[in-house]
Amino acid sequence: MAIDEKLEPVMAEVMRRNPGETEFHQATREVLESLGVVLARHPDYAQDALLERICEPERQIIFRVPWVDDDGCVQINRGFRVEFNSALGPYKGGLRFHPSVSLGIVKFLGFEQTFKNALTGMPIGGGKGGSDFNPRGRSEGEIMRFCQSLMTELYRHIGEYTDVPAGDIGVGQREIGFMFGQYKRITNRYESGVLTGKGLRWGGSRVRREATGYGTTYFVQSMLATKGDSLEGKRVVVSGSGNVAVYTMEKVIQFGGKVVACSDSNGIVVDEDGIDLDLVKEIKEVRRERISTYKKLRKGNATYIEDGRIWTVPCDIAMPSATQNELNGADAKALIGNGCIAVGEGANMPTTPEAVRLFQKAGVLFAPGKASNAGGVATSALEMQQNASRDSWTFEQTEARLATIMAAIHDRCAETADDYGMPGNYVAGANIAGFIRVSEAMRALGVI
Ligand code: NAP
């Protein structure tokens, strides 16, 4: 889809103001491409520079993070928090620790998060943050000192009613614990609602760990149901082997699917007997080793391919759950050629625009991450609810809420796409429905 000519100046201004931030340009373009039909029906949405404002973060914070490594050397990283949009509630979105983190990456993630959070129907704005810190190979002590140093600056910008970070790539419960501890120490307040993704014994929510992967799988199941189909008996390929990937695999298996491949940034494992999820959890969550260990420990026919392309493994359903732009046009052609019928994005923007177009042209059901992976942030909002009421829900109760939220997001996207004459186009449905909710709140709050 091309950008409507009325929206071209908005895109041009984003490019001028954010030079070199290609991922942010990509994410903005994708949303603006969906909005031409909205402006044709509601020209008033273009008033008061609403579109220009929605593309400009409310606040961008960049800071130095000094810390001392195990050899006594001082290391310097850069910390970021982009507080993108708070029209619907406090900024909400994860922190990512990965060497590729830059302002442009954080901005694209914060922009996506704004629409995703709106789609959940919950009172949360959008934000994102992180650091170019590389946790790979760092000791527990180094990770702790880094997290403490990051929080020593970040604490002044966040709060239960202001900005509530969570985890993302490289940030799990351990890191959230170190950051929460430092926040508590500096502020002298046990403010559980300031971070989500906490451990169960110190204010966390059941199902938060599983939520993004489970939610993505619920969304895929709902898409398949529109065609009278389901995950039962399907061959599924899941990229990554981190938080989102592991719990995507778990729910796929619970729904009767067979996961035949997963990966990390070094290589892929293919296991025709079905991936042994307990083994993946042992390798990634306990030993914190590379996925290549799978081949060494698994008896049977598993193979490990260093630098392999996971999307060449034949499957019915592809669930990219590692990182942005990990599935390109050539991968999409391979998947379509092998008979893939559905793609569910667990990661944020893992599919390139060319690949999305190819899937849509081929009639492959395509779930965009800002809708399908919203279960994580939705359960973070449930964690905030439990913190505010000093309550703790059961696993079943919390998962039931997650399932209801995911069904509602699916239906909201599908109905919006129908309403705008693009049935089955979940990308357009998600962008339009998210945009309308954020825009209406922004208009009500005046020019701020
Ligand atoms: P994670 O636990 O750190 O796992 C990330 C996985 O992706 C790892 O297997 C990692 O492999 C792989 N990966 C990361 N960067 C890569 C790269 N540049 N190339 C190839 N593989 C790479 O992170 P996560 O929380 O699962 O997040 C995965 C994706 O889901 C991200 O796009 C994130 O923004 C998105 N997401 C997460 C949540 C959440 O609740 N956690 C919610 C919504 C969306 P290595 O170990 O080798 O690096």
The number of domains is 3
CATH architecture of the largest domain: 3-Layer(aba) Sandwich
Task: Name the CATH superfamily classification of the largest domain.
Answer: NAD(P)-binding Rossmann-like Domain
Structural class of the helix and strand makeup?
alpha/beta
Classify the helix fraction into a percent range.
40-55%
Largest sheet: 7 strands, mixed
Shape summary? globular
- Strand composition percent: 5-15%
Number of strands: 12
Function: Catalyzes the reversible oxidative deamination of glutamate to alpha-ketoglutarate and ammonia.
Family: Belongs to the Glu/Leu/Phe/Val dehydrogenases family.
InterPro entries: Aminoacid_DH-like_N_sf, Glu/Leu/Phe/Val/Trp_DH, Glu/Leu/Phe/Val/Trp_DH_C, Glu/Leu/Phe/Val/Trp_DH_dimer, Glu_DH, Glu_Leu_Phe_Val_DH, NAD(P)-bd_dom_sf, NAD_bind_Glu_DH
Site (Important for catalysis): 168
Q: How would you explain this protein's 3D organization?
A:
Residues 205-446 form the Glutamate/phenylalanine/leucine/valine/L-tryptophan dehydrogenase C-terminal domain. NAD(+) binds at residues 212, 243. Belongs to the Glu/Leu/Phe/Val dehydrogenases family. This protein is globular. It has 3 domains: 8-54, no CATH class; 59-190, 3-Layer(aba) Sandwich (Rossmann fold), CATH 3.40.50.10860; 211-372, 3-Layer(aba) Sandwich (Rossmann fold). Helix 2 (22-41) packs parallel to helix 4 (103-119), helix 11 (329-337) packs parallel to helix 12 and helix 14 (375-388) packs across helix 15 (395-419). It is α/β, with parallel strands linked by helices and 448 residues long. 46% of the residues lie in helices and 15% in strands. The protein has helices at 8-17, 22-41, 50-54, 103-119, 140-154, 173-187, 208-225, 243-254, 277-287, 293-297, 329-337, 353-361, 369-372, 375-388, 395-419, 426-444, and strands at 59-68, 74-85, 91-97, 126-131, 163-166, 235-238, 258-263, 267-270, 303-306, 317-319, 342-344, 365-367. Strand 6, helix 8 (243-254) and strand 7 (258-263) form a beta-alpha-beta unit. Residues 167-170, 212, 240-245, 264-266, 321-323, 326, 346-348, 373, 376 line the site of NADP nicotinamide-adenine-dinucleotide phosphate.
